[in-house]
Amino acid sequence: MARMGAELRRQDFVEATIKVIAEHGVANATTRRIAAAAGCPLASLHYVFHTKNDLFYAVYESLFNLPHQALEHVPAGTTAADTTAEVLRQLITWFIDHPDAAKAQSELFFWALRNDPEMASKIYSVAIEATEQALERAVGAELGEKFLKAASRLLVQLVDGLTIAWSAHGDLHRLRAETETACAALALLVASH
C-alpha cells in the first residue's frame, strides 16, 4: 500500500470532519468518528492534528477558503453594485452546492463561540479579510477602503444569516428568493455610496 502524504491526509480529515459535523453536530464529532469517516487510523488523525481545536480550525479555514475560491472568477457587473450583489449570489450558490459545508460552518462557529471565543474571533476576522480581498478583486478600487471593509462585513453577515435560516427552514426556493432580496439590498447600499 502506498504511503499518503500528510497534506492529503489532512484534506481527508477536513472533509470527513465536515461530513461528521453536518450529520452529528460538533459535540458528537469525536476523533474516532472522524477517523472512521476518513477511512484512516485514529493515530494518523492525531499525527496530522495535534489537538481537536487544530482540526476544527483547519475545517473552518477550509470552509471560508473554498467558497472564496469560487469568487476568483466572478463576472464583473456593469457597476460595483451589480458585482457586489453577484459576489453574495455566488457565495450562497457555493453553499447550496455544498450543503454539508453550510451546516458544518454554522455548527462549528457557534461551538467555537461557546468553547473557544479566541478561536471564534480569529475565525471571524479571517472570514472578513478573505471576503474583503474577494470583493476588492471583483470591484477594484471603485469602493473606498472604509466602505470596502463595511461592505465585506455586511457580506459575511448576510451569508451567515441566509445559511443559518436555510438550516432552519430547509427550503431551497425560499433561500434563493431571500438571497435575491439580500442581493438587491446590498446593491442599493453599494450604489448609494
TrEMBL record:
Key words, A-Z: DNA-binding, Transcription, Transcription regulation
Name of the protein in its database record: Putative transcriptional regulator, TetR family
Gene3D superfamilies linked: Tetracycline Repressor, domain 2 (1.10.357.10)
Residues covered by the HTH tetR-type domain: 7-67
GO MF annotations, alphabetized: DNA-binding transcription factor activity; transcription cis-regulatory region binding
PANTHER family with a match to the protein in the record: HTH-TYPE TRANSCRIPTIONAL REGULATOR BETI, HTH-TYPE TRANSCRIPTIONAL REGULATOR RUTR
Domain of life: Bacteria
DNA-binding region: 30-49
